[in-house]
Amino acid sequence: MLAALPYVGVLLLAIYAKLAKKLTASGTIAAIFVGFAITWGLGWIGLLTLGLFFFSSSFLSSFKQQLKEEDINEKGSTRDGMQVLANGGVAAIMSVLYGLFLSPLYAIGFFASLAAANADTWASEIGPLSKRRPIHIATCKRVDQGTSGAISIMGTCAALVGSFVIACIGLLYDVTNSFLIVIIITVSGFVGNLIDTLVGAYSQVLYRCNCCGMNTERRMHCGSKTEQIKGLKWVNNDIVNMSCTISAAIIAMIIAWFIV
């Protein structure tokens, strides 16, 4: 009976997120899948880590929402299935692999992938609150808040803290209970966020609205079709986020393989 409690917790968390309009129907199904996989592999610690990522992200996404530029993003703050998998899919795979093979490297990969997802989310949500417009790393010019590939001091600091917060949860788990591993996870999560920024700057598709002139990730704006001005059509924000979590997991596992 007690063994089923974490899974009940996943269901309740997913239902709450759906009722709070944080997840779409597909997002709810994906969240249950991800939550079950993580719980099976890493138990309560995995669920706690996932819950921390979800609640902190949800809080930040609604904090001072009026100051953030929503129209530039392809999707709103309600996450669909692809967004959930892009942020938590790698963590779910790492967790299942750990449950099957009990290798500490997979546990490290799990924490690193969620650290990167948390770093990216905190940077995306806190960065736009800066009074100064961010700088696009490809053009070195100031751009609108929320532009993919843009960085700010506030957003960068938020990314580092966000990665560190998730890494610290690893201290509660036996196989990652080491300050050296916390540093590895923190650095890997932060680097994953930087890779996210680079991919977003150079490869993510961007469109321009012919009506209002706004640059946006949306194919439709102001009721009309937008015009592609850069990037690859298949590289949307979900692909960028997936590159963030995958790279962080791989980097952390490689470093741990040689050092730990």
From TrEMBL:
Transmembrane segments: 27-55, 84-101, 150-173, 179-199, 239-259
GO cellular component labels: membrane
Keyword Membrane: yes
Keywords on record: Membrane, Transmembrane, Transmembrane helix
Membrane topology qualifier: Multi-pass membrane protein
Compartments where found: Membrane
Pfam families in UniProt: DUF92
Principal location: membrane
Keyword set includes Transmembrane: yes
Family named by the database record: Belongs to the TMEM19 family.
Identification of the protein by name: DUF92 domain-containing protein
Organism: Halalkalibacter hemicellulosilyticusJCM 9152
